[in-house]
Amino acid sequence: AQTVTQSQPEMSVQEAETVTLSCTYDTSENNYYLFWYKQPPSRQMILVIRQEAYKQQNATENRFSVNFQKAAKSFSLKISDSQLGDTAMYFCAFILDYKLSFGAGTTVTVRA
Amino acid sequence: DTGVSQDPRHKITKRGQNVTFRCDPISEHNRLYWYRQTLGQGPEFLTYFQNEAQLEKSRLLSDRFSAERPKGSFSTLEIQRTEQGDSAMYLCASSSILTGVFGYTFGSGTRLTVV
Questions:
Q1: Using an 8 Å Cβ cutoff, are B67 and B80 in contact?
Q2: Which of B23, B106, B108 to substitute to test the interface with A, most A CBs within 10 Å?
Q3: Which residue in B has a C-alpha nearest to residue A96's C-alpha?
Q4: Short-list A35, A98, A111, A103, CA closest to B50
Q5: Would an 8 Å CB–CB cutoff place A45 in contact with chain B?
Q6: What are phi and psi of B4, to 5 degrees?
Q7: How large is the greatest C-alpha to C-alpha distance in chain A, in angstroms?
Q8: I want to staple A40 with a disulfide (CB 3.0 to 4.6 A). Which of A6, A14, A88, B49 is the partner?
Q9: pLDDT tens, A20-68?
Q10: Are A93 and B42 within 8 A, CB to CB?
């Protein structure tokens, strides 16, 4: 079974600053995918960024980037130039075949 | 394409009553998933359909829960004899074989409160 751990229940960041969310996972598989999802108060899960385990290069999507350390089973998310609209719950997720395993989430609050 | 739709958005029910939720996936998606999210936690996998076939059920899905996807289109999730522990957000998602894991799209969920 795959487990995903997010050790930071809450994070607060000033607008325009940078925040990093941590995530570790446990799996015996070699080929898998990792995701960060955003869940705003509107509740819909929105994919922020994804990483294929076979790729060494860290994924980047605009202000969002990841630090993927496969040997350490670590997958952190960096939000640069934080905006008020980034306020949401962020979930790290692992997928194998078709099933997603989520961490408990980190609530990010961006202060004006 | 209006995305994944779930109905109702909120449901309050008395303990012991039966409830049914509906999910309409993206029309070209042949895979459909149900997840449950309790307060302060990440979603947990409940069940998975490919077309009309239910291919996997989590151990979280007790005998009181049943899911269907007739004709491989919309899906329903029914909870019989609801208990307070069933209070949660029920999320539906869909994807297609072609897009695989990258095409996963979630609905906005149905929030169930059992009183």
A1: no
A2: B106
A3: B101
A4: A98
A5: yes
A6: -90, 125
A7: 42
A8: A88
A9: 999 999 998 888 899 999 999 877 899 999 999 988 899 999 999 999 9
A10: yes
Q: Check: CB of residue A82 under 8 Å from CB of residue A17.
A: yes
Partner-chain contact B106 A45, CB within 8 Å? yes
Instruction: Please check the confidence at residue B34 and state whether its pLDDT lies above 90.
Output: yes
The whole-number pLDDT of residue A74 equals 96
pLDDT tens digit sequence for B35-69: 999 998 999 999 999 999 999 999 988 999 999 99
For A48, the closest chain B residue by CA position comes to B102
Q: How confident is the model at residue B1 (pLDDT cuts 50, 70, 90)?
A: low
Contacts of A34 (CB under 8 A, 6+ apart): A23, A25, A50, A51, A53, A66, A68, A75, A92, A93, A94, A95
* Residue A53 forms contact with B (CB below 8 Å): no
Nearest CA in chain B to A101: B44
Neighbours of A91 (CB within 10 A): 26
Q: Check A100 against B56: CB less than 8 A apart.
A: no
Beta strands in B1-109 (DSSP E): 5-7, 10-13, 19-24, 31-37, 44-50, 53-57, 65-68, 75-79, 88-95, 105-106
What's chain B's average pLDDT?
93
Q: Do A47 and B104 touch (CB under 8 A)?
A: yes
Q: Which residues of chain B neighbour A40 with C-beta distances below 8 Å?
A: none
Taking residue B107's Cβ as centre, other Cβ atoms within 10 Å add up to 23
